[in-house]
Amino acid sequence: MTIEISLQVNGVSHKFAVSPTETLVDLLRRRLGLTGTNKDCGMGICGACTVMLDGLPVSSCILLASQADGAAVTTIEAIERDGRLSPVQEAFLRHGASQCGYCTPGFIITASALLAENPHPSRDEIVEALKGNLCRCTGYKRIVEAVESVARQGGPT
Amino acid sequence: MTDCRFTRAASLGEAVDCLQQAGGEAHLLAGGIALGILMNEKLLEPSWLIDLSRLEDLKGIRLNPDGSLRIGAMTTHREIERSAEIAGAYPMLIEMAREIACGRIKNRGTIGGNICLADPQGDPPVAMIALRATLRAVGPSGPRDIAATAFFTDLYTTALTKDELLHEIQVPAQADHTGAAFGKFSARRAMDYSSTVSAAVRLVRDAVSGRISDIGIGIGGAGLIPIWAQATEAALRDNRPDGDALAAMREALMEEIEPIGDDLYSADYKRHVASVILRRTLERAYARAAAVGGADKP
Amino acid sequence: MTTIWKEPDGEKFALGSIEEQAHWQKEYQRILRAVREEADATRPAERIGRDSHTVGMALPRNDALYKVRGKARYAANIPMEGALFCRFARSTEAHARIRGIDISEAKAMPGVRAILTADDIPADQLLIGTLTDDTPVLAKDHVRYSGEPIVAIAAETEEAAEAACLAVEIDYEPLPMILTPEEALAPGAVQLDPDGNVIGDLKLENGDIEAGLRAADVVVEGSFVTEPVDHCFLEPPSGLAFVDPDGVLTVMVCTQYPHYHHKQIARVAGLPMEKVRVVQTVVGGAFGGKMDNTVECAIALLVLKTGRPVRMLYTREEVFTATTKRHAMKIRQKIGATKDGRFTALDVEYLADGGAYRSYSLVVGGRCVIHTGMPYRFPNSRVHYVATFTNYPPSGAMRSFGVVKVAFALESLIDELAGRLGMSPFEIRRINGLVDGDKTSTGQVIHDVGLLKTLEAIEPIYQERRKALAAQPDDGLKRGLGIACLGYGIGYSGIRNPSTARMRVTADGVVTACCGTPDIGTGSDMSLAQIAAQSSGVGLHRVRVVSGDSTKTDDSGPTSASRTTYFSGNAAYICGQDFKRQFEEAVARARGVTAAQVRIEDDRIVIGNERLSFEDACRLISAEIEDICGYGKFDPEIEASILTFKGNPYPTYVYATHLVEVAVDAELGRVDVLRCWAAHDAGTIVNPTGAEGQVDGGVAMGIGQALWEKVERRDGVILNPHYRDYLMAGAKDVPLEIKSIFIQNHDRTGPFGAKGLAEVSLIPIPAAIASALHDAVGIRPKRLPMSTEYLLGLINERARAAAPAAKAAAGDGHD
Ligand SMILES: Cc1cc2nc3c(=O)[nH]c(=O)nc-3n(C[C@H](O)[C@H](O)[C@H](O)COP(=O)(O)OP(=O)(O)OC[C@H]3O[C@@H](n4cnc5c(N)ncnc54)[C@H](O)[C@@H]3O)c2cc1C
Ligand code: FES
Ligand code: FES
Fold first, then answer.
1. pLDDT, tens digit, 9 for 90 and up, residues C572-583
2. Is the pLDDT of residue C85 over 80?
3. What is the CATH T-level fold of the domain A87-152, as seen in this structure?
4. Element holding C623 (H helix, E strand)
5. How far apart are CA C610 and CA C598, in angstroms?
6. Predicted confidence (pLDDT) at residue C807 exceeds the cutoff of 70
């Protein structure tokens, strides 16, 4: 069977007929072409597929689209504003926090959600928030430093 | 690919009805994390999914006037970790929630889904055993209360019947001079889930003698199910946690746990870890009990 | 034939067309300017952002712009209408004869468009490989590991292809399995390869080992065991293939080496070279794991079979079960030294598990042999390396080509030796460390050796931390410090591996540098742009690097062996000089002056007293601007015998000393790495941001490999094909205090003095951790990974050994 769901994705309302077992990451990538959300493990472990669901980071690879009915989804594509990078994005660029970049959207979503909730997190709070996202290239240091630099400015995220 | 039905239950009654109709072939969808993984791994092709997300009845945390706590099955780990009520009355649960995976998982994963999954590595089950929580199920013939200590019956198996679901968790009020702690061992500092050992301890410390007058212990990752360490509790009860009692505790624990060797660790190593983690957690709980005081506190 | 892909103009494909990116390039330039202004207040404001002299500046990478926006073109993210999906039906047996393959049911499944088996490929085109063509694109009648592809199916959806693969019936006749090199070498063992079970048997000898051992006052020895490791690049292998409007079979894929696939695909498909093109997509990490064929040949053949575009994306489980791994290795090693700490002898035997096919086993072997004993003087040495086949996935290249294990064994024993001699770990290394003019084990005389400087940089930090640890209040944890060094040759071992570059300019002043080696996520395009800009004198902002396209660049080898900065950097340097000369000559002709009167200088053209902007100069020479093509080829003389290894295997070497600080929970065997200092002699650092990023990442990978990472195998099966049980370091597992120290050392042969860096930062970490563990709790770990259980065992063993001694001491009446 298929079920009707409505989703707000990056501020735009959509209706979809989905199979009950279709995952959110597949819906975003295949139906909306929002390929900024990468997929790797499919088991909730790596964080490459992280999106915000009603403002909170979640693994979109193990979230059924049917469960997200009525929710607002934010993907990496909606983090930049008016043709400018968001402070988190700019900080990642400046600090060299993105190398191969495959993990980057997941980290930026996670960090942006953290800063929206807590604009001035301590270093420990930043590490705690990022501890579940894997990165094979950077060794995390520059990612943490990038987020820290935004936390110090405390500007909008 | 088999076709899958999907029901977004609008009431507890509807959810139970669906379960009954499905005759054991339906899967309740809480956070969907465990189910999502099973589906991605092709280990599960559900024929009927019953989504619990709209059941307000299953949500929310309430601290009752008598000091007892009610947690709806659909409460997320995040909600527990950030609950002011829980922080005040049951700090051990906060400590436990901190140990679970990471924010992304806690934002979706529910305590009900976690307990009903009955993963032997799960953190909430052992906490609930130590706290002597009651798990309230709902089925066709109404509610049924099951003690957390009797809930986990076999690997990934609970005392729920096919047509029951978990409604809420009730944690009794804590006596004066109670201290509780949660401890976990994992190779890395986060995200380990398949080979961890955990201990939850709740104890009441006699203000005068310093003896442990009441105690609850749950051990995770040390057998097929989250373990209620009954004999270990007995070894400590009416004792102070020192010398002989600790030796007796260790001995009892070794009898009660049955860790399974895996790719990371041998069963023997897990035994050792369980005893160390239990001792450290016990020490923390005992120290806290002294700090919190009770009726005699100034 | 459908194709909707249009070639983006003038810029590296992966980043999109210039037009598409025009706005964001401005945004990037704004940020670049801001970074420059912060870094250097003395620069005239109007020149900032137009500099050509940027080598040595910490600059943000251009490609990161696309990555932070979620716009990077990984293969799976490239849209293509009408593309089919490919999946493999893989062997479920580790070693078997294939009696029959029944595809009839799969063929009838909905959505299935084509099924490919080895029978569809002419026998002389079936085998591919990196050094030797020994690996079938699809297994024919013999499977050598569980996970080996046997059937490739293209269907309308991924799900349909997957379902059809499950419907393929394969009839196996199981054969005895070979699970270890020892089994492979045993008399009467079943033969896995037509040429036997030995992949390589390599030897290198110097001096007289027996005499060296006799001359030693102290000899230490040990047997070391290391487990296979996965690269864990986050992007699983993925690719997209189609025929372009000119009839060229185009394969877009995440790879370290597009030209390799180009050749292989042409051969396998039976097409002339000019009918094939391989374009590198953005690569989501590689670390040596994207140099072998994975999806490439299958999707190419399926495009030819179906006439439709075909894409493929491995699952994470496939990455673990069917891509190359780091070799499991056993090392037996012995070193001898005199009382005053001079090394006299080094005797080493390696036994490596090469897996089912050759892949890079010989390269790994050669590098291990040459690097045995590096970076020290051993007057007498004997090295023997054997790699065999087994029935596990092929072992291949991975960051450092095995040298991390060589260093683990050697540096651990040196630490032990220093202890036995009562010498500091610095002193023993200073006495024996290579210096300018020394000869390596291959007889190469080396220059610009910065090893001792890296030791000097670390020693005061070590002393300071020693004091700090002594003053540390007791928290139940045992702390320790450990150091380890490395010397690492840049580039291929002992064979010439040239790199080339070309530079052109458009009339509106956009400079394109086509460089041979692709950027695999390390930021090499950025470094090459900096080198090309500085060499030619044009502003960095106008240089766009094109790399990773097999039809736009010459085959310059893979991005591996830390060779890109040095080899391609040198090519870019030479090319920049050539471009500059041609450009100046063109301006001179246009102005009717001599070439000597014209200079490009910091993005402006100086003609006598006159200054032209670069754009104006381009307009001035617009008539002949298309003829300008700077060319650079860097091809240093490298030669070493593959039999004796004597000769000059590498043009230059990098050196490092690392220091780590650990805290040990001795009751559980649990280790935390708290701090790390990494001093490198990598020559001039082209882009410190990029270089430090490489070091941080290498340290994290090194910690993972030291403590947790292990591909768990049993009876021909990989038991932990997922991140749940394969544990790599997360943000809480690595020190955020990683301090990179780059010592000043100008390499006379490198571009602006640079050597390279990428792989090396990983190499000393496991050894340094092992030494720190000895410092903390007195144990000498000899296994990787050093699991908590293993470490606890060593700690307990030591306590037991110490117990009788302690008792005896107590009995003496010393209470
Ligand atoms: C990477 C990762 C790391 C993790 N680490 C930890 C950890 O450290 N500690 C830990 O404790 N957990 C951990 N978990 C588990 C996680 O916390 C979730 O709690 C767990 O996956 C199940 O929660 P869920 O709400 O998603 O349940 P679901 O997947 O929705 O359901 C799980 C099972 O319970 C059943 N079920 C759900 N709700 C009910 C109900 N009300 N009544 C009856 N049956 C019900 C479902 O049918 C299903 O069988 C981890 C998970 C992941 C993916
Ligand atoms: S792909 Fe979703 S967490 Fe890894
Ligand atoms: S930048 Fe490559 S995985 Fe994080």
1. 999 999 999 999
2. yes
3. DNA polymerase; domain 1 (1.10.150)
4. none
5. 10
6. no
CB C90 within 8 A of CB C148: yes
Q: Which chains touch B (3+ CB pairs under 8 A)?
A: A, C
Q: Is the pLDDT of residue A60 over 80?
A: yes
C499-635 and C328-492+643-801 share a CATH fold: yes
ipTM of the complex model: 0.97
Cα dihedral: A62, A145, B78, B218 (round 10): 90
Q: What is the pLDDT of residues C347-371, one digit of tens each?
A: 999 999 999 999 999 999 999 999 9
Rounded distance between C-alpha atoms, residue C779 and residue A28, angstroms: 52
3-state class of B143 per DSSP? strand
3-state secondary structure of C580: helix
- The pair of structure tokens assigned to C315 is 């699952």
Q: Is the pLDDT of residue C551 over 90?
A: no
What are A34-52's pLDDT values in tens digits? 999 999 999 999 999 999 9
**Angle (CA) C434 C437 C440, round 5°:** 55
Q: What average pLDDT does the structure give for chain C?
A: 92
Rounded to a whole number, what is the distance in Å from the CA of B12 to chain A's nearest CA? Answer: 17
Maximum separation of any 2 CA atoms in chain C, in Å: 101
What are the backbone angles phi and psi of residue C76, rounded to the nearest 5°?
-70, -15
Domain C499-635 has CATH 3.40.1740.10: no
B107 touches chain A (CB under 8 A): yes
Is B192 close to C730, i.e. CB distance below 8 A? no
Pairing mode, if any, of strands C737-742 and C670-681?
Answer: parallel
Q: Which of B183, B116, B124, B123 is nearest to B152 (CA)?
A: B116
Contact C693, C724 (CB under 8 A): no
Instruction: Tell me the domains of chain B and their CATH numbers.
Output: 5-51 (3.30.43.10), 61-171 (3.30.465.10), 178-291 (3.30.390.50)
The minimum CA-CA distance between B93 and chain C, rounded to whole Å, is 22
A152, burial (CB in 10 Å: exposed 0-12, middle 13-18, buried 19+): exposed
- Which of C234, C254, C311 is the mutation pick for testing A, counting most A CBs within 10 A? C234
Geometric angle at alpha carbon C72, from C69 and C76, rounded to 5°? 130
pLDDT, tens digit, for every residue of C447-473?
999 999 999 999 999 999 999 999 999
Query: Which pLDDT belongs to residue C3?
Result: 47
**Domain limits, chain C:** 18-77, 328-492+643-801, 499-635
Helices (H), C69-109: 104-107
| Token pair for C78 | 């490239």
Q: Give the architecture-level CATH label for domain C328-492+643-801.
A: 2-Layer Sandwich (3.30)
Domain residue extents for chain A: 3-77, 87-152
Give CA–CA dist A47/C234, Å, rounded: 10
Residue B170, CB-side half-sphere exposure with 13 Å CA sphere: 14
Residues 84-123 of A with CB under 8 A from C: 84-85, 89-90, 92-96, 98-105, 108, 123
Instruction: Report which of C86, C93, C87 is spatially closest to residue C171, judged by C-alpha positions.
Output: C93
Neighbour order of strands in the sheet with B48-51: B5-8, B48-51, B27-29
CATH architecture of A3-77: Roll (3.10)
Question: What is the enclosing helix (H) or strand (E) of B165?
Answer: strand B165-171
Interval B193-220: pLDDT, tens = 989 999 999 999 999 999 999 999 999 9
pLDDT digits 0-9 by tens, C213-261: 999 999 999 999 999 999 999 999 999 999 998 899 999 999 999 999 9
